[in-house]
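Note to self: keep these together.
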Amino acid sequence: MDLLKILSKIAKGEALTDEEKKFAGEYRPDDTGRIPKERLDQEIAKRKAAEDQLTDLNGKYAELQAKWDEQQNAGLSEAEKAKAESARQLKSLQDKLAAETKAREEAVRKAADLEFSVGVKEIAGKHNFTDAEYLGYRLQSAGIKLDDANGVASFMKELEKTAPGLFRSSAKPGAGTGGADQSGNAGQAASANLRLQELGKKTELSSREVAEFIALQEQAANGQQTTTTSNGGQQQ
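Structure:
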């Protein structure tokens, strides 16, 4: 069952089948945040099958193209054949250049995303911020450049005033209290609630935002449950 397909249908307002409703109701994100091995194996197998099919189709296309060229060139003079061949080679080179350009741009984008992710995690660790992913979203929304030390410092100082629950306390927790874990869970729940509020204000959500909304709801619920359990334990 494809979760993204289900989320896409939900976003479009399309009705779900009984099987899809059951899957959506029983679905739970992996606790480790990683893709389950069984799901990963399925995706790899599907991608391999798609690649094999594409290779087969490309081979058939090349054969048909060769036959077409042969028929087209049958009544041409040598000069016309040479001109047609030059045009074909030029088109082939243009296609290769376009593909290489696209691959290079994709590689540059991925490198930039990775560099940004690493930079955000460093900033989050330096300022005891609990949710690096959410911090990255806020920094991008505010237009803050990671290499702008003064801008980052000012932004984090202001963020600490408006959302103190997203920062870990620098004080050491008492023995047996589990304070560090509780603070981290509470911070993640707080950041999840803030993002949920932002998504809730949108008139329309993309499939990716619908998936994010579902994951954030569970994250916020888990954080609240942990906090409630902790408070109950303290009262006893």
